[in-house]
Design goal:
The complex is a heterodimer of chains A (503) and B (228). Chain A is an alpha+beta fold and 503 residues long. Chain A has helices spanning 6-9, 11-29, 38-56, 58-76, 89-136, 141-156, 182-194, 238-301, 307-337, 350-361, 385-401, 457-468; strands at residues 158-165, 171-173, 198-205, 208-216, 221-230, 346-348, 369-373, 381-383, 408-416, 419-426, 472-478, 481-489. Chain A has a 5-stranded antiparallel sheet, sandwiched between helices. In chain A, strands 7-9-10-12-11 form a 5-stranded mixed sheet, covered by helices on one side. A two-stranded antiparallel ribbon of chain A has the order 6-8. Chain A is rod-shaped, with a radius of gyration of 46 Å. Chain B has 8 helices and 14 strands. In chain B, the strands form 4 sheets. A 5-stranded parallel sheet of chain B has the order 2-1-3-6-7, sandwiched between helices. In chain B, strand 6 (78-82), helix 4 (87-96) and strand 7 (100-103) form a beta-alpha-beta unit. The longest helix of chain B is centred in the middle third of the chain and has 16 residues, at 108-123. Chains A and B meet through helix 8, helix 9, strand 6, helix 10 and helix 11 of A and helix 1, helix 6, helix 8 and strand 13 of B.
């Protein structure tokens, strides 16, 4: 990793050594100068330069090139022990000798750095492979953090913190134990939002430089890896840390998908459980209710009972019917709140649905007069008829419950652009002032304790169903009573059937 | 209901059986009971009941199995008692050949009224099928005549066809698909808005209060029932 720096750092020694080698070459060849041809002596000097280049690198080799040429000139080329040259052709010799020496030193240097680079890369990929295989076994975010931190400590003498995005866009430190620094948290949050590597920063920790690397997963950013490198350690290659960050990002993403898969498995199981519980409750509660209601009804209609006992039978019937409606509402609410409301939309007529609600409520509306004002040209709407029947049943039942016997319950509708507004009026005391916006909330009732039965589910069910249809429901107090208004989308109906009048 | 009427009651809840039996015996009917599909089929073959009251959720199988088997050899009415919420189950029962259904809890009076309507239709002779009277309306299907309070009511061809299908099946729940196929043809079984419009026309022309009909009744999510 720091191989590139070595020749420069070991400089002075190497230069001295290079000069020494040149001197040695002079001392060794000087006695032989009459025996060996000058051309071969030149080759010996070139050999020395090559050796220096291989051992100490380019700088010393360049120095050695010049020193060799100078020594050759001084000690061997006539006139000896002088830098002057008798024969001008030796100038060419010096030039070639210098050029060859320099080329050797450059080439050997290039080879050296390539070899060092290859060695460095091999070391790096071995390291990354080690980290990758460690991370592939990690089952939790905490394990990922530990493995990464151990790896960086061992290999780079660095300290690591892992920040992972939780709910929302907020990152949170994994294994946050001793040093949770607010600055670090803020910096990590910034990098998470920004997506760019930051650092090295000197001011996050006293004795270390800090790098913040975004963890980019395949689908989205997963968090931030914070690396603190001690002041005494060398700064690693940016590429290495980026690779580490990529490995950590993959591992974090894998954990995320494992969690998603587990959650959806759990969800499926709980939906199945909930549905079977609902079905069981539905059956087990309704069977005794059916018997209760039926027996009370038989008693109430038989003519053999004295009046007061007949009254009791009627009350029994009315109460068991209410209980039945409450069970219906509870089951409806459980279903509606259990997730997706599946609408079975069809072209439906509001008056028809209201008539069916009135029919199903039966005796519950017997004490009230109904006034239905439907315009003759009322359009059909795209509705789930069963669910909307529940809405009108609840609203009518409510209107009857909260208004005096003998009073009038009114229904009407009007078009407003691409919407239809349906209103239900009663002549009761109205909704409690100040609570109008909340009457459709779950378990909200007019007053905390009243003599009027019901658990406040009805209106909440109405809102859920109406909103599932893309509409909204509002409560008002109008002169002489209360009003509920339902606004529903009113799309263009397909062409009605065409028929000639001839018959 | 002059002759003794035989009813087969198929229901696995003992208390509900007791309740229904008491109500029907008071009407002078003879009631036989079964609490399983297999037993019900055996009983039906042995006694050829005039009407079957059937709970869909039986311990040894689906009530639909009974309906299919029974319909192979008998056209007597089947009234389904249903505690199930699924409209799909009700439609499936009607498609298999059930005539009507009654949700739990039900009033004894309602049960008796439904049974009377079903028995009346089943007992009609062919000749009787052409003329009907309800409220202040008289209909002669053979002569294409509809008279209300002495005045002839003009119906379009489609309106008349729809009225004829509903009257011929009085007391029986007719699913949307069934009505659409009978009146408009198989290619229109999904066009349920046709039905909403035309049932609306019939109510306007023949009901005393079209907003609160008493003859052309809606079975929400399932279809229509004509009640005399």
């Amino acid at each position: 990793m720091s191989g590139m720096e070595k020749p420069a750092r070991a400089g002075l020694k190497a230069y001295l050594a290079a000069s020494g080698v040149c001197a040695l070459a002079v001392v060794l060849t000087l006695p032989l100068r009459d025996v060996i041809d000058l051309a071969n002596i030149i080759l010996l000097f070139v050999l020395a330069v090559a050796a220096i280049a291989v051992v100490w690198g380019r700088g010393p080799a360049v120095l050695a090139s010049f020193v060799s040429v100078a020594c050759f000139n001084f000690f061997f080329v006539p006139p000896r022990f002088s830098f002057s040259v008798d024969d001008a052709q030796y100038l060419l010799t010096f030039g070639v000798m210098l050029a060859v020496s320099l080329m050797i030193s450059y080439l050997s240097n290039a080879y050296r750095s390539k070899a060092q680079e290859a060695e460095r890369r091999a070391g790096e990929s071995a390291l990354l492979h080690e980290l990758a295989s460690d991370l592939s076994a990690a089952l939790t975010l905490a394990q990922i953090h530990e493995l990464t931190a151990n790896f960086l400590r061992r290999r780079l003498q660095a300290d690591a913190a892992l920040f992972v995005a939780g709910e929302g866009k907020q990152v949170q430190q994994v294994n946050a134990d001793n040093h949770v620094s607010v600055i670090e948290q803020t910096a990590a949050q910034g990098v998470y939002l920004n997506g760019a590597t930051v650092g090295p920063l000197a001011d996050l920790r006293d004795d270390a430089e800090t790098l913040l690397l975004p963890l980019n997963g395949a689908t989205r950013r997963r968090g931030v890896l914070v690396v603190h490198i001690g002041a005494t350690a060398d700064l690693p290659e940016a590429g290495l840390l980026a690779s580490v960050a990529a490995l950590v990002a993959t591992a974090v993403e894998r954990i995320h998908y494992v969690e998603v898969a587990n959650a959806s498995e759990l969800e499926t199981q709980s939906v199945r459980l909930r549905n079977s519980i609902l079905a069981a409750i539905s059956h087990d509660i309704r069977t005794p209710l059916t018997v209760l209601y039926g027996l009370a009804d038989s008693l109430a209609v038989s003519e053999v009972l004295p009046p007061e006992q007949r009254e009791a039978a009627l009350a029994l019937r009315a109460q068991s019917y209410r209980l039945h409606r409450m069970v219906d509402n509870l089951l409806d609410m459980a279903r509606l709140k259990s997730g997706r409301v599946e609408l079975r939309l069809d072209w439906q007529s509001i008056p028809e649905i209201v008539a069916a609600s009135v029919q199903s409520l039966g005796p519950a509306l017997a004490q009230h007069r109904l006034q239905l004002d439907w315009p003759t040209d009322l359009p059909l709407l795209r509705l789930d008829a069963l669910l909307m029947e529940r809405v009108f049943s609840n609203l009518l039942e409510n209107a009857a419950k909260y208004s005096p016997a003998g009073s009038c319950i009114g229904l009407g509708a009007e078009s407003a652009g691409d919407r239809l507004i349906v209103r239900i009026d009663n002549q009761g005391p109205g909704f409690p002032a100040g609570r109008l916006a909340h009457v459709f909330d779950l378990f909200e009732r007019g007053e905390a304790e009243t003599a009027v039965p019901g658990v406040g589910l009805g209106l909440s069910i109405c809102r859920t169903i109406v909103e599932a249809h893309g509409g909204h429901i509002e409560a008002f107090n109008v002169s002489g009573g209360a009003q509920v208004r339902i606004t529903l989308p009113c799309p263009q109906m397909p062409a009605p059937p065409v028929e000639s009048e001839a018959r | 209901m002059s002759a003794r009427i035989d009813i087969l009651l198929v229901e696995d809840e003992r208390e509900i059986r007791r309740l229904v039996r008491a109500a029907l015996e008071k009407e002078g009917m003879r009631v036989r009971e079964a609490d399983r599909v297999a037993e019900a089929l055996k009983e039906a073959a042995a006694t050829t009941p005039d009407l079957v009251i059937l709970d869909l959720g039986l311990p040894d199988g689906d009530g639909l199995t009974f309906i299919r088997e029974f319909r192979l050899w008998s056209q007597r009415p089947i009234l389904v008692l249903s505690a199930r919420d699924g409209e799909k189950d009700k439609i499936a029962a009607l498609d298999c050949g059930a005539d009507d259904f009654l949700g739990k809890p039900f009033s004894v009076g309602e049960l008796q009224a439904r049974m009377r309507a079903l028995l009346r239709r089943a007992d009609r002779t062919q000749a009787e099928f052409s003329s009907f009277e309800f409220g202040d309306v008289a209909v002669d299907l053979a002569r294409h005549e509809v008279v209300r309070a002495g005045q002839t009511v003009h119906l379009t061809a489609i309106e008349f066809r729809l009225l004829a299908v509903l009257l011929s099946n009085a007391g029986k729940v007719m699913t949307h698909r069934h009505l659409l196929r009978e009146v408009w043809g198989a290619e229109h079984v999904e066009d349920s808005h046709y039905l909403r419009i035309y049932v609306g026309h019939l109510r306007q022309k023949l009901e005393v209060d079209p907003a609160l009909p008493v003859h052309f009744l809606t079975e929400i999510g399932i279809g229509y029932r004509f009640v005399i």
